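Team,

Forwarding the record for the chain on the shared tracking sheet. I've put the sequence and predicted structure together so nobody has to dig through attachments.
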Amino acid sequence: MFMRECSATTDFTTQVSVDPWFWQRIGNAFVADAYDGGTCGNWGGPWAEMKWSSPNELLITYDQKARIFARNAVVGRVRITYRAVARYNVRNVGVSGAVRAR
């Protein structure tokens, strides 16, 4: 996962790339910005988390208000699932940032 910011007129993006050989043209799995609101991660782009379920399965959790540019279900041999969650900058937020059930 990384952040990209291209100029003063564009927002920071959060990107997840699945590439076992690092920059060998496999490509991005997920690209989003926070143009439509939502919370941002410490890096400036919209909040997201990723978790490997197995060597070939990845879960990407992201703020439901993020504006999505890419959300690929398969990259190379990796299957990717996504989960949009409500995130708020309030005290009722758990460690992961997802809103706790009341």
